[in-house]
Write a structure and sequence with these properties.
alpha+beta, Arc Repressor Mutant, subunit A, globular
């Protein structure tokens, strides 16, 4: 699909959304077992994303099956709890999980999120308030945070 952030590829296994990837993604989506033809899950995901980019939607109601380790899935569950328009640090995310000493592992799991935007990994920033890491590129992270009213600074 086309978006303000460039082309987005949505992937489904026929029952749930399993991937959302930007062109030039740092960690490409694993498409094994993916259903190639349009289906209701993909159409609904595209509709909800267009509503999000059109400022009509602040959260998503989609069946998502994000493949990852148990630890990654725990991180992604906590990401899903970060409200629209808010940011937290990687350290705060680790604290919320009760794993303060695992902040680096939390950051790595955050970066492996296979359905960015839908599971809002873009809402996690550096402890000093800076933008750090985003698989789709920092410019996309800044755009998403500005879109949600959570970012006023500029990168340059």
């Amino acid at each position: 699909m086309d978006s303000p952030l460039g082309r987005i590829t949505l992937t489904s296994d026929g029952e749930a959304l399993v991937g959302l990837a930007f062109e030039e993604e740092r960690h490409p989506v694993d498409r094994s077992g993916a259903v190639e033809e349009a289906n209701p899950i993909l159409l609904d995901a595209e509709r909800q994303l267009l509503e999000y980019f059109g400022n009509w939607r602040r959260s998503f109601d989609l069946a998502i099956r994000a493949a990852g380790t148990e630890f990654q899935r725990q991180v992604w569950q906590h990401l899903a709890d970060i409200p629209f328009g808010e940011t937290i640090s990687y350290l705060e995310l680790a604290k919320r999980m009760g794993k303060e000493k695992a902040v680096r592992a939390v950051g790595l799991a955050n970066g492996r999120n296979p359905v960015s935007i839908l599971i809002p990994c873009h809402r996690v920033i550096g402890a000093d308030g800076s933008l750090t890491g985003y698989g789709g590129g920092l410019w996309r992270k800044e755009h998403l945070l500005r879109h949600e009213g959570a970012w006023q600074k500029t990168l340059f």
